[in-house]
Design brief:
The complex is a heterodimer. By secondary structure, chain A is mainly beta. Helix content of chain A is 8%, strand content 26%. In chain A, strand 3 and strand 4 form a beta hairpin. The radius of gyration of chain B is 22 Å and the shape is globular. The chains are: A mainly beta, B alpha+beta.
């Protein structure tokens, strides 16, 4: 199934070149893939995986391994950031 | 003590400058800057006064940590009754002006009356005098600062001044220092303009040598700087990406006010984000962002310094805009971009530069343009009236309207009234996205429920900086709360409001609170200031400051009905995203908030609250 991984701020470095100008990385994953598995697969450093959203909804650290992705889901991740 | 214990009182009508002792009893109850200046203002003016009359006063105020070695200790506030809202106005700025005022030996400058002709205030340590500013009237902020430095033959003079927007009574005109640091909101610049006061120029060489316990202060400020450095947000995130990193975050959660709050996600957000500012442009191969910048004493350095694309239509014939300049920050990029549907980042930077150059608030301005574009698309406003076709998304319309607002020409005069008056003038008051007449910043109250209460109850009109619950509701600082629920938000908002009131009165920047708790600021105050500065005292002080502002507003005529949001946010559900179908639960939150505050059902302080806080 197709999902989209979005990586922002310093996590942009983990995107392939063709995705760097959009921060969006569409990819095919097996049914049943979890948020935690996708993070591990792309070797995203845990200190940079801070704000994790699926379709805009927050996924707390303790829930990432259990959160199964569905087709067309958008997983967006930020390192610790703030502004205002 | 970290105060200089001296106030400079300037009467523009009589053209006198006098020194008087700081009321130390008040300083112990209101600390400095925002709190203490509000105490002076509330004690000296009638809250019902016309903000643009000579009877209003305007105060430049530092905090006890301004000018010290505490990280971010360079802040000052401008406090007055605001013309945009008719409420208390308090705008806070960084840069280097605040520290310089302290170095000159002054905690505060209180300006009263009105000069018969343009003047500026020159301060050199203990010497203060009013000087003719006729030759500066009509000049921009940038021209004014340059000319004053040249006339004083001293490039280290710090200038806090108005541009043409303040002179022309743009109701959201700001006061700018160091070219692009702004006491931006609520129209404090229009008050200065109404008094024929063009600028305050200050040179101070006295330093800040009156710290209560210098050894302890050095130790504790060093420790606290270490926390800022080691924290991922203040040590890496903010210096690298600035506030603009929020653009994609807020868009992703579906809380991005777009096209005058008609939508909650902006399809062009990525193109105007921090990530875009870092990328090489196709035209010249250079990134818009040049580097980051710090204000006085700041070890975070979140400021953005950028260079616009010199081939962009807005500046191709104006080389003066090709150099490095301040921006874009998130709030400005949102207001000039998402609020209008404009995704041309170079156009946003140009409009942002004009806001700095002529001194007006990009948040209120951009949000007003959002209302203009909606009225244009409805056929209420026409090309003939505005001077250009102005549909949502038009970068040309945005830049044109920014130019005529800066110069107060034609329709620019109407834009300068702000969205509330503009929308009322054209028969659609419901389209002004504002509270108490001040426009919203960059978070939709349907997708972040706590921010709705923040806006509705902010003492200076809609504002994010009075209780930035985004920290908790979105970013998880200090703890993550659910942005979509109203439950627990009255207590959260009150806690943020009270703590922020203390930070804003100390001389420090509120951005430190992404890493520091109030308990990290407390030992710095304790070491710098004589007397008791316990957490209990600070907690009570924050509440006292908030209630003093509220009392001023109540006395000015504000009631329960003014603590409300526009109908759009209460009746039109968010179209997409996590908040799809949701409206703001403001009516549910207000009664609980009033109860927590110790106010009656009409939002007035009860006698018990007044007594408890010693008001």
């Amino acid at each position: 199934m197709r999902v989209t991984l979005k990586l922002y701020a310093s996590l942009s470095d983990y995107l392939p070149d063709e995705a760097k100008r959009t921060n969006e990385w569409p990819m095919d994953v097996a049914d049943g893939t979890t948020v935690g598995e996708l993070i591990a697969r792309h070797q995203l450093p845990s200190r940079l995986v801070h704000l994790v959203l699926v379709n805009g909804h927050y996924v707390p650290p303790a829930g990432r391994d259990a959160r199964v992705l569905a087709a067309d889901d958008v997983l967006a991740i930020w390192p610790p950031v703030a502004g205002g | 003590m970290a105060w200089t214990r001296k106030i400079l009182r300037v009467n523009l009508t009589d053209r006198t400058c006098t020194s008087e002792p700081l009321n130390m009893e008040w300083a112990r109850d209101y600390l400095g800057q925002r709190g203490l200046a509000t105490k002076y203002l509330a004690s000296e003016i009638d809250p019902k006064v016309d903000p643009l009359s000579p009877d209003n006063k305007i105060i430049w105020a530092t905090g006890p940590l301004t000018g010290t070695m505490a990280s971010t200790g360079g802040r000052y506030s401008v406090v007055t009754k605001g013309p945009l809202t008719g409420a208390i106005a308090c705008s806070n700025s960084g840069g280097y002006f605040g520290a310089e005022l302290k170095f000159a030996g002054w905690d505060m400058v209180i300006i009263e009356g009105r000069a018969s002709s343009p003047v500026y205030l020159s301060i050199e340590n203990g010497k203060a005098e009013l000087r003719d500013a006729s030759h500066l009237w009509g000049k921009t902020v940038w021209e004014t600062e340059g000319q004053i430095k040249a006339e004083h033959q001293d490039p280290q003079v710090r200038v806090s001044c108005i541009g043409r927007a303040g002179e022309n009574g743009v109701l959201y005109a700001g006061i700018i220092n160091d070219l692009h640091r702004a006491a931006g909101r609520s129209g404090v610049g229009a008050v200065a303009g109404s008094k024929n006061l063009k600028a305050i120029a200050v040179r101070g060489t006295l330093g800040v040598g009156n710290i209560a316990n210098p050894k302890e202060f050095m130790k504790v400020t060093f420790e606290k700087k270490k926390i800022l450095k080691e924290n991922a947000v203040t040590g890496q995130g903010l210096p690298t990406y600035g506030t603009q990193v929020l653009m994609n975050v807020i868009n992703e959660i579906g809380a991005m006010p777009t096209r005058n709050h008609k939508d909650v996600q902006f399809e062009g957000a990525r193109k105007i984000s921090a990530e875009a500012m870092h990328e090489p442009r196709e035209t010249d191969g250079k990134a818009q962002l040049v580097n980051n910048q710090a204000c006085f004493g700041c070890t975070i350095a979140c400021g953005r310094i950028s260079k616009i694309d010199a081939t962009h239509f807005s500046v191709v014939n104006s080389p003066k805009y090709w150099g490095a300049s301040g921006g874009l920050e998130y709030e400005a990029a949102w207001a000039l971009g998402c609020a209008n549907g404009v995704d041309d980042i170079e156009a946003l930077q140009y409009a942002n530069m004009l806001c700095n150059e002529d001194g007006f608030d990009p948040i209120s301005y951009g949000a007003t343009i959002g209302a203009v574009m909606e009225l244009y698309e409805m056929g209420v406003l026409t090309k003939e009236e505005i001077g250009i076709e102005a549909p949502f998304g038009s970068a040309k319309a945005l830049t044109y309207m920014t130019e005529i607002t800066a110069r107060s020409e034609g329709f620019g005069k109407v834009i300068g009234l702000g969205s509330k008056r503009l929308c009322e003038k054209y028969g659609h008051p419901e389209l002004s996205m504002s509270v108490k007449g001040q426009e919203f910043p960059a978070y939709d109250a349907r997708g972040v429920q706590g921010m709705g209460l923040t806006y509705a109850t902010s003492n200076r009109g809609a504002c994010h900086l009075r209780s930035y619950t985004i920290s908790s509701e979105v970013l998880g600082i200090p703890v993550k709360t659910d942005p979509l629920t109203t439950e627990g938000k009255p207590a959260l908002v009150k806690a943020f409001q009270d703590a922020t009131a203390v930070v804003d009165s100390s001389g420090l920047c509120v951005f430190t609170t992404f890493a520091w708790a109030l308990s990290d600021i407390q030992p710095q105050l304790q070491a710098a200031c004589e007397g008791d500065w316990s957490m209990e005292k600070l907690d009570l002080m924050g509440e006292r400051i908030w209630n003093l502002e509220r009392q001023f507003n109540n006395d000015a005529g504000f009631t329960r009905k003014d603590d409300d949001l526009p109908p759009r946010l209460k009746t039109e559900g968010a179209k997409v995203g996590p908040a799809k179908g949701m409206v703001s639960g403001i009516d549910k939150m207000i009664p609980e908030y009033y109860e927590l505050r110790g106010w009656d059902k009409e939002g007035r302080l009860t006698a018990e609250t007044v007594a408890r806080l010693g008001l």
